[in-house]
Amino acid sequence: MKIGAIIPVRLSSERLPGKALMELAGRPSIVRLLERVAACRFIEDPRDVVVCTTGEPGDDPLVAVVEDAGYSVYRGETDDIIARFAGAVAHFGFDAVIQADGDDPLSATEYMDAAMARLLEDPSLDIVTVDGLPLGCATKAFTRTAMDKVTAGYATRENDTGFIYFFTKTGLCRHEALSVENPTHRHETARLTLDYEDDLTVFRSIFDALHRADGPFGLAEVVAFLNDRPDIVAINRHVEAEYARRTVEKAKLDYIGADGARQSIKL
What DSSP string runs through 196-259? Predict the structure, then answer.
């Protein structure tokens, strides 16, 4: 099997434009994420880590940064992430992929490994996700078959918010969620996704404290740091309600069910 990784990113964010190129410990945020994805034990070549961005000229600087760092790019639809994913999976010939979000530079490599191992262990599974990690640390692993099922069944073409629900909340795919039992990997209140200026402050505090030259630091180190620094955890807690409200508001997604009828995903 050829295993890769796909990450949706574009620079025209409504809340924090250009965030993928903002620096964390001297490197762009997107490169920090790609380093963590490339460390997954199932990724044999960094060029199999693919940023899925748009064909818009405004994303040209992102393409240059990603390719200069030694990773790959696929360019496709502006608002249709499912189409971008399908195009990338087909173009690179992937049989299964790790899927991380471009907003999550602390995506946990440990659980990329765990999710992909579980996916490959059970051929009946289409997608494996992870429950119980701090917001912004979880990734997913899914098969090319899952991609084909979603591509055949999704109906809403503007799906940049909530696209993963086509895989997990429609019955189109066989889904399993791993539970996080290790207490050193859990933090009930940390917000580790990059959408607002205060999120950037939190990430810079973490990377400045933990960054090292020999490779990405682990999730247990992040959790231990945050446990010692509740003041940093508090910096961006106030945006969480707005983040959740906006997700529900924008994730209005339809699909074609097994009976052939158009249905809406219920959150």
Answer: SHHHHHHHHHHHHHH--TTSPPPHHHHHHHHHH-HHHHHHTGGGHHHHHHHHHHH---EEE-TT
DSSP state of 191: B
Task: Please give the Cα distance from 222 to 136 (Å, whole number).
Answer: 12
Tokens 């917001």, residue?
135
pTM above 0.70, yes or no: yes
| pLDDT tens digits, one per residue of 127-143 | 999 999 999 999 999 99
Number of Cβ atoms within 10 Å of the Cβ of 93: 10
Looking only at the bridges linking them, the beta strands covering 96-99 and 262-264 are: unpaired
For helices 29-38 and 60-68, give the axis angle rounded to 10 degrees. Answer: 40
Task: Summarize pLDDT for 19-40 with one digit per residue, the tens.
Answer: 999 999 999 999 999 999 999 9
